[in-house]
Design a protein that fits this description.
alpha/beta, 12 helices, Rossmann fold, 2 domains, ProC C-terminal domain-like fold, 262 residues
Length: 262
């Protein structure tokens, strides 16, 4: 895999360019976007070669990454099917199944990614699902490309909607939680900026402790002491339906993602 093309050079397209440049310095990158002025400027920023068309990206790349709008897929496929036939393709199109990409572009070498917004910082876990006919080389290269956005996890496509609920949309629950923690800090005497900094640090500390696979309830039990401060806070969370509310949020996002797939 020496040449990677990106079709659709918006926020996620640029995230791929930045991540691939940093983690695969020997790879030649090209990109196409219908916004020509934006493409030229963004390509200069990331040292990427601008392409004259999406078809040119497919023709000149070992693997091409689709970052277009999902609703544009039918017209896009009609335009490039000849150039894309048999090529290796990565799609980040929400709600578009692997088979839809495969049928539309005339190739079975298709991978589907589910990153989240942390990809813009190179810190996303990316769910990766592959067409059943994908070759071992396609699999390894797809996982490598996904890793440029942070880290990769191969999953069956049937779990892509759940990946959206936990990670793609789920990162927003974490932002909401951090904000709520900060507001609690303000109510208790801190200014908002300081409280948010403390909340973010607390989240980082908690994640670090879970990295080795220790169950979160075991870790929580180390903090909870009889008749102490922590158990009072946990009681308040559960009285507010905390656990059920988070579960419901994940399930609601999962349902919506599944509906989008048809």
């Amino acid at each position: 895999m020496k040449r990677i093309g990106i079709v659709g050079f918006g926020v996620m397209g640029e995230a791929f360019a930045a991540g691939l440049s940093a983690r695969m310095p020997g790879v030649a990158l090209s990109a196409f976007d219908v916004r020509r002025d934006h493409l030229e400027a963004a390509c200069r920023k990331h040292s990427v070669t601008p392409a004259r068309s999406a078809a040119e990206v497919f023709a000149s790349s070992d693997i091409s990454i689709l970052c277009i709008k999902p609703q544009d897929l039918p017209a896009f496929c009609a335009d490039v099917k000849g150039a894309a036939r048999g090529r290796r393709v990565v799609s980040i199109l929400a709600g578009r199944r692997i088979q839809a990409i495969s049928d539309g572009l005339g190739t079975d070498q298709v991978a589907r990614f589910m990153p989240n917004v942390a990809a813009t910082r190179g810190a996303s876990l990316v769910g990766v699902a592959l067409h059943p006919a994908a070759t071992p080389e396609m699999r390894s290269d797809s996982l490598a490309v996904a890793g440029a956005l942070g880290s990769a996890m191969e999953i069956p496509e049937k779990l892509m909607a759940a990946m959206t609920g936990i990670s793609g949309s789920g990162i927003a629950w974490v932002f909401q939680f951090a904000h709520a923690m900060a507001l609690g800090g303000v109510a208790s005497g801190f200014d908002y900026g300081t409280a948010l900094s403390i909340a973010a640090s607390t989240l980082e500390s908690a994640v670090a402790m879970m990295k080795d696979g220790t169950h979160p309830l075991e870790l929580a039990s180390r903090v909870i002491s009889p008749a102490g401060t922590t158990i009072q806070g946990i009681r308040a969370l559960e009285q507010g339906g905390f656990t059920a509310a988070v579960m419901a949020a994940v399930e609601a996002a999962t349902r919506k993602a599944a509906e989008m797939e048809g």
